[in-house]
């Protein structure tokens, strides 16, 4: 008996149309207050009552500090005080659902943490204890010294770090920003007495900024901070201006630098292009131009070398802001055999955006992405605290956020094209490629003059 025939049923195709983007609304800023204490510490308190927590950020200018000593100070700042061990500090923080950590970069030392809003007073007391009585015990310093050396040695074996280091040296030359990770032997030489001396000299309230964000009453939070941290000693007699980082040198385009990594199966492409600080009139237009080029997943460059040609997984370009200057960096890691073609397409996309205006839909898509990312970035207490702290390092406050949002919403096609022509032209790029020189030199030399990095 043959099976019965089943008549196919035609299912109607379902098409869902996404709604259009709504109008851009004015960014509403949270309530905040600010005061500078007699010891020079600036306190910024911002009310964001979404959850009963408070975010704490303390930014201390730390430019031109010895890289190894600065890194070790950040590693061991919370390792104990005159009256408390590192374990006791952590236990006390846990009683208020809190935590603290420290980090350092070429511009600043930062202590960051959070906790229950009712524990703000205790968090600030412990912060004050660390700031005024950190003792850098020898056993803790030895442990963290070994850990940091291991971290540096691992980093120095990674192609991303090697390429980044080569690019920084090419960008900055003798500027302090050129060396952002100390050498292992420099770290091994650090002793507790050097850390105590650095702390006494540089961990000072003058020029520092404390940012508090959460379910707080800003004026009351500032009063609490003054009661607890108002007695923080002023520090050494050296004026803070001594440590100011000089302006970065202008980018000096030249031959593409090949950094040899024999037998490497991948090449790391790195570029730097000129950029402007957040307060510059061109900043919003440059942000949009960069997004269209390579700053997000729907950008031209990503579409070209990732989606269309499959040369790489995660190409990306971004504007990097430091206190003494800004730059636009371009990064991609590609298979060795497509190093030349990937560089060709990168130069092509830079040349295209610098010589032809983008389409209207490209501009609007990039604009909406920029505005949406801006709002998402400050939607949480931690995001808002991070941005407020970053802005403070450049002498800005949250009102700049609203101004920047308005500029993004209003930037025109002509302004974006002018910014792309001025800053993204491939002739203005500083370029470094890390890879197997024996296999990549010839394809790259067919595109642009090259030079080989000296060992």
Automatic annotation (TrEMBL):
Protein name: Zn-dependent peptidase
GO molecular function list: metal ion binding
InterPro entries, per database record: Metalloenz_LuxS/M16, MPP/UQCRC_Complex, Pept_M16_N, Peptidase_M16_C
Taxonomy, superkingdom: Bacteria
Organism: Catenuloplanes indicus
Domain Peptidase M16 N-terminal: 71-184
Taxonomic lineage: Bacteria, Bacillati, Actinomycetota, Actinomycetes, Micromonosporales
UniProt domain Peptidase M16 C-terminal: residue ranges: 191-368
Pfam family, one: Peptidase_M16
SUPFAM superfamilies per the UniProt record, alphabetical: LuxS/MPP-like metallohydrolase (SSF63411)
């Amino acid at each position: 008996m043959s099976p019965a025939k089943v008549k196919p049923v035609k299912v109607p195709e379902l098409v869902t149309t996404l709604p259009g983007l709504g109008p851009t609304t004015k960014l509403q800023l949270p309530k905040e207050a600010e005061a500078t204490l007699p010891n020079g510490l600036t306190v910024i308190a911002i009310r964001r009552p979404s959850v009963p927590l408070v975010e704490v950020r303390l930014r201390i200018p730390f430019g031109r500090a010895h890289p190894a000593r600065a890194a070790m100070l950040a590693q061991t700042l919370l390792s104990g005080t005159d009256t408390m061990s590192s374990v006791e500090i952590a236990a006390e923080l846990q009683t208020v659902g809190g935590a603290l950590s420290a980090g350092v970069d070429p511009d600043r030392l930062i202590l960051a943490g959070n906790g229950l809003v009712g524990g703000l007073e205790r968090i600030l007391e412990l912060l004050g204890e660390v700031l005024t009585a950190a003792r850098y015990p020898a056993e803790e310093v030895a442990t963290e010294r070994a850990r940091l050396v291991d971290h540096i040695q691992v980093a120095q074996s990674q192609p991303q770090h090697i390429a980044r280091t080569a690019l920084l040296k090419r960008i900055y030359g003798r500027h302090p920003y050129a060396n952002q990770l100390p050498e292992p032997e420099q770290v091994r030489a650090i002793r507790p007495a050097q850390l105590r001396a650095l702390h006494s000299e540089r961990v000072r309230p003058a020029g520092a900024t404390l940012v508090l964000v959460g379910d707080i009453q800003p004026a009351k939070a500032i009063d609490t901070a003054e009661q607890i941290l108002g007695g923080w000693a002023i520090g050494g007699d050296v004026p803070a201006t001594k440590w100011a980082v000089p302006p970065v040198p202008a980018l000096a385009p030249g031959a593409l630098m090949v950094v040899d990594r024999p037998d490497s199966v991948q090449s790391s492409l790195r570029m730097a292009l000129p950029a402007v600080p957040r307060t510059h009139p061109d900043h919003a237009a440059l942000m949009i131009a960069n997004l269209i080029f390579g700053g997000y997943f729907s950008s031209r460059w990503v579409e070209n070398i990732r989606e269309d040609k499959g040369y790489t997984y995660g190409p990306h370009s971004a504007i990097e802001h430091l206190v003494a200057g800004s730059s636009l960096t371009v990064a991609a890691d590609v298979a060795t055999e497509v190093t030349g073609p990937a560089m060709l397409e990168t130069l092509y996309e830079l040349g295209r955006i610098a010589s032809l205006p983008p389409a209207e839909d490209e501009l609007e898509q990039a604009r909406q992405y920029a505005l949406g990312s801006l709002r998402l970035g400050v939607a949480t207490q931690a995001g808002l605290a991070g941005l407020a702290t970053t802005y403070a390092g450049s002498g800005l406050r949250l009102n700049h956020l609203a101004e920047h949002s308005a500029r993004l919403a209003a930037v025109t096609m002509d302004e974006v094209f002018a910014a792309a022509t001025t800053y993204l032209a491939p002739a203005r790029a500083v370029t470094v490629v890390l890879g197997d020189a024996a296999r990549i030199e010839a394809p790259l030399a067919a595109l642009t003059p090259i030079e080989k990095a000296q060992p």
